[in-house]
Amino acid sequence: MIPTGSRKPHRKSRNGCGHCKRRKIKCDETKPHCRNCIKHSITCDFPEILARKAASISQSPGGFMDSISTHPSTSSHPPPSVATPGSVSGQTISPHMGVDAIPLLEDETHLALNMVDLELLHNFVTSTCFTISQNQELRTLWRVEVPRLAFQYDFVMRAILAVSAAHMAHWKPDRADFYISRAIAHHKIGLRGPTTILPHVNKDNCSPLYIFSALTAILSLAMPRKPDDILFVGSEGVAEWLFLLRGITSIVQSSRDWILNGSIGAMIHRVNIPGVDPTLQAPYQGQPQPQGPASVDSNGGGGSASHMATPTTTATATTAIEHARPPEHDHLLELRRFIERDLSGSGLHDNIPIYMGAMDELERSYTHVYNLGPADCNLRSIFSWACQVTNDYLMLLSQHTPHALLIFAHYSILLHRLDSFWWVKGWGTHLITRIYHLIEPVYRQWVRWPIEEIGWVPR
């Protein structure tokens, strides 16, 4: 018989959930949910279970955008149950309760911070955004409006983090490999978004696509260069990033009015990032006209009829150039004449319109630089030419044909003039070095001007 006044012995709960411990009641230690928590419709918070969940999320390569999705349609977790004001999952919360006593929602037990990606986002809005443009208005757009779009479209956030990671690699060379791998991973994941929505462009997603194309272009220049890199083309043709950029630019061109009326409209209005200005489109339409045997070449010497031709430009191109002719016009005109002379009597004369079209676009890029100044056309002067030249020209460039390389050498001057931007720095010198060693000695006199402008010394 149990003596009167004595209590029945019981087993103490040493591994109970946090809620039971805070309420100082016995926990039956049933996992993952004890009976007390089930009774009160709250989620158990056994320490070892929460630790395992937090560790699995923090080690995920997807980063915080995978663990905390801001877009309703892409959320990886079910929405929390609706609770009335002053309650969580049916449990009343008193204003006098301590923080530790407030129960967590199901989703909140899974939250984890990816400090690397938070660092990248902070770097973008406090530093990188100011290095994309010299125009104060556009800097504000990159700092405020672009991140705002990124919280709606995951692929824009990925592009932001990728460019920021490349920026961090530039300033932290001791950790460059880590940040570059992060940039590649974010951009690779981000590519899935544009690929999916390109067939369905509308007024809501055209601006995010536009931003993604701009950040992709910047990232392509910011990534480490290989010794044989020619930027736009590779051994298999057009570079993948440029193929994407040209495709997005072409589609977004039809959405120009939507973008102009949106939150980033000033970017197109100021013609400052990859895009197309309809007033500057004038494909080459002329045909070379052979000269007589007595014709004189640009150096004052004689030439055979098979290798001589008069310089040809379209009426539209001439109008655009004469409207505000850049000082470089004479050098570009000499190159144009040489290409026409050199090919007019050969079996490659069919390529002349291709090269002349590329020259037309190059003169327009120089005109932009001369008339608008670097503050308003730094990005445009680089990428408008790449977006407007024909696929035929890019194919000839990938084959390292001498005339395509000569035109590209004159393009490298534009890159060099923007050498103060960290993501452009060194590209002009790299390209002229590579081109000089690719062309035969007989053509090297035609890259003398680019060499002098860039300040490179042949070795």
Q: What report would you give on this structure?
A:
By secondary structure, the chain is an all-alpha fold. Among the domains are: 12-47, CD2-Gal4; 115-224 and 236-267; 327-454. It contains 21 helices and six strands. It has helices at 18-23, 35-39, 47-58, 64-67, 115-126, 136-150, 154-171, 176-190, 192-197, 206-222, 240-253, 256-260, 265-269, 315-323, 329-344, 352-372, 374-388, 391-398, 402-416, 427-438, 448-454; strands spanning 87-88, 91-92, 233-234, 237-238, 289-290, 309-310. The strands form three sheets. Strands 1-2 form a two-stranded antiparallel ribbon. Strands 3-4 form a two-stranded antiparallel ribbon. Strand 3 (233-234) and strand 4 (237-238) form a beta hairpin. Helix 19 (402-416) packs antiparallel against helix 20 (427-438). It is elongated and about 100 Å long. Residues 61-90, 279-313 are annotated as: Disordered.
The profile of the biggest β sheet is: 2 strands, antiparallel
Number of strands: 6
Q: Tell me the strand percentage band.
A: under 5%
Structural class: mainly alpha
Shape from CA axes?
Answer: elongated
Mean pLDDT: 75
Poorly predicted runs are 53-90, 271-323
Strand order of the largest sheet: 1-2
In DSSP terms (H or I, runs of 4 or more residues), the helix count works out at 21
Give helix % range.
40-55%
In whole angstroms, how far apart are the ends?
106 Å
| Element-by-element helix/strand order | HHHHEEHHHHHHEEHHHEEHHHHHHHH
Work out the radius of gyration.
31 Å
Protein name: Zn(2)-C6 fungal-type domain-containing protein
Region (Disordered): 61-90, 279-313
Keywords: Nucleus
GO molecular function: DNA-binding transcription factor activity, RNA polymerase II-specific; zinc ion binding
